[in-house]
Specification:
52% of the residues lie in helices and 16% in strands. With 256 residues, the protein is an alpha+beta fold. Strand 4 and strand 5 form a beta hairpin.
Length: 256
């Protein structure tokens, strides 16, 4: 009878250390995901809340005039209601995400998505003296997606406005939409700001790259990729930045 005795103490210690390291890595990944999501939530919810405050203050000023302008008051109340609904939609999307509910994709007219997104940021752009030029191609086919596409455009427009904040001269954002080929459409958002520093370009879409101009870009790219699209940027210092979005058409738009 031949008997072997092997001391596996070191192997067991190594396995325990590996399991501990994997647990730490999993925890770090959860923290990173939560941090990115929290930053995105705060950024998204803050926009309608700020608009509600601005509209409410404007409504109070109209009411406090010697002769209250009830038409303007009604208009500002309409803005408050619209922004309140937008905040509610954001919370609903977050709850759906956390419940891991099956994602629902609708047939979206990209022209309507652009129109609604620009309407949501119109007051904020006007407050910062930013001119918005929208040039959509006529008759764009629909895309299959979710309302998050609208929030991507809102984030890019707000970021472009912030990039030009305090900059002398004209501040212009140009949004264009058109076809690329028989399967893809493209949207570009271009600003007349100072551009993105070369050192920041490589990190621009990193989750924890939290400069004012970079807020939400990681989420924007993830959202586009979830819709089968892409998000990229080109920038020349001193000549502004241009974000390029591509999305596939819905196959349902084709004529039978």
């Amino acid at each position: 009878m031949l008997v072997f005795v092997v001391d596996i103490t070191e192997r067991k210690q190594a396995q325990d250390a590996l399991l501990a390291a994997q647990a730490e890595l999993a925890h770090a990944a959860r923290v990173a995901t939560l941090g990115e999501l929290s930053a995105s939530i705060a950024h998204e919810v803050n926009q309608p809340l700020a608009a509600i405050v601005t509209s409410g203050e404007a409504g109070l000023r109209w009411l406090r005039r010697d002769v209250p302008d009830l038409k303007e008051v009604a208009t500002t109340i309409g803005h408050v209601v619209a922004q309140g609904r937008r905040a509610s939609e954001i919370v609903t999307r977050i709850r759906t995400f956390l419940k891991k509910a099956a994602p629902q994709q609708d047939l979206l007219q990209i022209g309507e998505v652009i129109e609604e997104a620009t309407a949501l940021v119109a007051r904020e752009l006007a407050k910062d003296d930013v001119a918005l030029i929208v040039e959509p191609q006529h008759g764009l086919p629909p895309v299959r997606g979710r309302i998050q596409l609208q929030q991507v455009l809102v984030n890019l427009l707000i970021n472009a406005s912030q990039a030009m904040s305090g900059r002398p001269g004209s501040r212009v954002i140009t949004l264009r939409a058109g076809t690329v080929d028989s399967e893809t459409l493209a949207i570009t958002v271009r600003d007349s700001g100072p551009g993105i520093p070369p050192d920041d370009m490589a990190r621009l879409f990193d989750p924890f790259f939290t400069t004012k101009d970079g807020m939400g870009l990681a989420i924007c790219r993830t959202t586009l990729e979830a819709h089968g699209g892409r998000l990229s940027v080109v920038s020349t210092p001193g000549s502004g930045a241009t974000f390029h979005l591509t999305l596939p058409y819905s196959q349902e738009h084709a004529s039978p």
